Amino acid sequence: MGIDALSTPPRPEDSHETLLEFPDNRLLIDLCGQFDRNLAQIEHQLEVQILRRGNQLSIHGEHEGRARAGEVLAALYARLETGRAIEAGDIDGEIRLGRGGSEASVGGQMELFKGGRVEIKTRRKLVEPRTAAQAAYVQNLFKHELAFGIGPAGTGKTYLAVAVGVNLFIGGHVDRIILSRPAVEAGEKLGYLPGDMKEKVDPYMQPLYDALNDFLPGKQVAKLIEEKRIEIAPLAFMRGRTLANAFVVLDEAQNATTMQMKMFLTRLGEGSRMVITGDRSQIDLPRGVASGLRDAEALLTGIEDISFNYFTAKDVVRHPLVAKIIEAYDAADPQG
């Protein structure tokens, strides 16, 4: 059961305290975390103080902070009641985007919550958007055959896209997953790298391998790649193909030229879905070469059935310093 009915109003003598009571002491220990680190994270992010008194938590601070902390603690406790663990990212997600309402099956293996919260089921984990922009993006990935995710590094654009691709693949909605990136040289010439072509381009593709291994067992990933049911290849390898019944992701699309972008977009075949992700502030193309992502955005915005989803530093889900670094660079170069 939830704990809403067990929360008590502030005592008259202490208008800056809210008490929450938790019936299961074992779950309360998990809620607090080792050395109370979960409570410390909530305290830091919401500027409150949380004290444990037996099976109660006492929240001190301004009314808004106390109310939000109470909602977060209640949601996390409910999560523990379902048998799921709590990680730092789960706490951050609950603080950024409160859960509300009940689950309802939407299609495939995505679960939609009232208020826009979703979960994506994969073989190894449940993936949850942690910001409103991420939740809207995931919903558009399921809804639209062609979707763009544009924003800074660390906002989950590619990670969530690959999660949705795995979700649809294991659900039988697509036959293949195709992940691609432009193999743009950023200070090191491909020809100077050792090995055959696969060994030369694999370092560019590594983030895609990392995402896949988060969602599928390693042996299964290797088997599916061997069977060509998962393909990870440079953008140049897409020319001349029609990609049918596939979930296709083009990552780092800001480094595709206009002609490459047009070529890639026109590969879309029957039964396929395509996701284009990129960061306009990290273009590595030679000076004077236009970014295909910028051109696609200008040409395709407004076309029905194509969604454009934008992220900002507020959607960064890496270390908090990453958001501050991005904001600093954006302030120095607002056109970036």
Mean pLDDT: 82
Indicate the percent of residues in helices. 25-40%
Give the strand content: 15-25%
SS summary, helix count: 11
Number of strands: 14
Q: State the low-pLDDT regions, or none.
A: 9-13, 99-108, 112-116, 186-190
Fold and architecture overview:
Helix 1 (25-32) crosses helix 3 (63-81), helix 5 packs parallel to helix 6 and helix 9 crosses helix 10. The chain has a six-stranded parallel beta sheet with strand order 11-10-12-13-9-14, sandwiched between helices. It is 39% helix and 19% strand. With 336 residues, the protein is an alpha/beta fold. A hairpin with a 2-residue loop joins strand 5 (103-107) and strand 6. Mean pLDDT is 82; it is low at 9-13, 99-108, 112-116 and 186-190. The protein is elongated, with a radius of gyration of 23 Å. The chain has eleven helices and 14 strands. The chain has helices at 25-32, 37-46, 63-81, 88-96, 132-143, 157-170, 197-215, 218-226, 258-265, 292-300, 320-332; strands at residues 7-8, 17-21, 49-53, 56-60, 103-107, 110-113, 118-121, 126-127, 146-150, 176-181, 230-234, 246-250, 273-278, 306-310.
